[in-house]
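so the lab meeting is tmrw and i was supposed to have these ready like two days ago... anyway. pasting both below. for each one the top line is the aa sequence and the line under it is the structure tokens. i havent really looked at them closely yet so no promises
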Amino acid sequence: MNITKTTKTILSERLHRSRRMRKVAAAGLVAALALTSCGSNSGSGESAGGAWTPEKDINWIVPYSAGGGFDVYARGIAEVMQQTQLPDGVNVVVRNMPPLPQGITAMFNEKPDGYNVGILPMPAAIAQQIQDPDLAKWKTNEFTVLGSVDENAYVVYVAADSPFQTIEDLQAKKGLRSLTVEEGSSSALAGLATIEALGLDANVTYGAEGSAEVVTGLIRGDADFITYGSTDLTGFVESGDIRPLLFLGTEEQRPESLTWLANVPTAESKGFEDLSGAVTELRLIVAPPNVPDNIATYLRDTVYATMTSPEFAEWAKKADRPIIPRDWQAATEVMNSQIEQMEVLVPSLSN
């Protein structure tokens, strides 16, 4: 099936907007770092820490199973935050709450008292809200945004022993099988856009609980290919269990630290410019709606200080995880742009 003219136009608009938003976010990050180096508050304009300080453990919700990319980043931030930013005796307790709708709903409905935060997948949150408003018991734009830690472009992978050596091999095959997590997730959305853009004859099985289950299914032979984040499956690529065939991000999104990704052809180089960077995963740190200003100030400053700290940079290096820290203002701007784009893109891909 070939991608329709309407969807091509939408993907093209998504690409141009995402490039613009990355430039805006990068400029904001440089400015914020400059302010930080001068001793200024990174996100609020108020005195550091505000007038509120936590006195008990902070609950952190991850809407996926343990071991996946969102879980790894959440635990990394939580660990460094607890060690370097929070008062003595205050811990961050990470709770995995799959499936995705249940986890996001829990994040949204927790008390806005400063003791509840979470890591929110975008554009998955808004995609689920659009696709199934009866199930999605949240309003994405009402979350209290604290910042974002990473921007994750997608890759088409096959098993190491797969007969498919190039993306053209996949395009020539009929009856392909793919596997992903919940319908409406960022990975599922990226996979659907890829299938349409490349004209693949493929059926998708939804419902895997996380990246570990998805990649296990690929290696086991339950799927011919998967579409997943560039930073999520690094260990499986480096161990030789899976191979990347096509990078769906832009050159700006190709992490230098991932040496295995350096020579993987891009969608643009294969003639699919509209697919390049069209769906990019954003890992947002959020709290429930209506968090009081003084509490939101503390959380935003603490999250940003954690993500820009030497300790977190060292964690990222050891974990082999790229980081693109944004303060709450830059992260909110990118989130709002994704909401606007997905309100058009998601219905077009569902038709």
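ok protien two:
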Amino acid sequence: MFENVKVILADDDPLNLDMLETMLQQFECTLIKAGNGQEVIDAISAHPQVDLVVMDLNMPVLHGYDVLRRIKQDVHWHDIPVVVVTADSKEVANVLELGANDFLGKPFNLCETRHRVMNQIRNKRLADFAKDTNAVLEVEVAKRTAALQQALAKAIQTEYEISLRLGRAAEFRDQETGSHLKCISQLSKRLGQLAGIPGDQCDILYFASLLHDVGKIGIPDSILLKPGKLAPEEFATMKEHTVIGGKIMSGARDYPVIEAGRVIALQHHEKWDGTGYPYGLKGDEIHIFARVVSIVDVFDALLTERVYKRAFSIEESMGIMMDETGKAFDPQLLELFFKHVEEFHALQQTIHADTLPITSITEMIR
């Protein structure tokens, strides 16, 4: 702790400097002498890692008060301990108020001087050690934080990728709606933004909406791909895709996208008036994500040709959906959707025009 110690001794009386030097010889430190206040400032500038300044208060060129102010107000020097030497006990309170760490009275007491100097050097070295340790710790914490952030980003990206692959798997079962997922995903996010859903939640909605029909994986082809109207018992089976989707994604509460996908899969066929399925939820009991997806899902389905129906015009589609205001759909959300319907229609048309039909599992996973 007392290796390579540097101490500045300042006094305009050479005899006092010699006395201080003799007293401090036992520390085997480097002593730097200064004969006035300006030389103290110059010495600190030349040796910024100095461990202690022991200085007389009454010095020429630059008074001890001014030197003390300069040291304690400098951002790089203020931690350097300063011991002021004075024969006037009335000055003690003043120098301590200015930031002096300790004081020595004249005439010098050998034992007292050594102990006071040793205590200040020890405190300085401990403070330096703590500062260096904190700097090292800050670097390590920054490294660990960066690594954790990268791992978290990778985990989130992996969750997004899993959602996309699951959605594509369900989409492949229903080849005639190859661009449906893109529409649901992009239109849901946009409607969520307009509805004031926070940005990070809109990102979750963007990927989670891909999973709305993942339960169709469990529906027989004879029902899922039937070109005509479903018989009542067939429709009952088709409705099970909501519950199947919920089961597929159950137990994933630590994964926001998968958990949101589970909720959407379960609730996107619930209706505002409580007549939907599978649980007959109504109003705000239905999660906002599911209410958003139900609107854009029906909108895209109406505008798109399917094996069991023709494509309706935008006017026909809006009329059909308007009739369901307050019944199937959240009235405020639907009103917001219609307010921006031209934007949604243009986006929907662009997506379908730019998306090639999927004809094989190989194309799906490219």
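from a quick look at the 2nd one: Residues 173-364 form a domain with the Hypothetical protein af1432 fold (CATH 1.10.3210.10). The CA atoms of residues 247 and 275 lie 22 Å apart. will dig more after coffe
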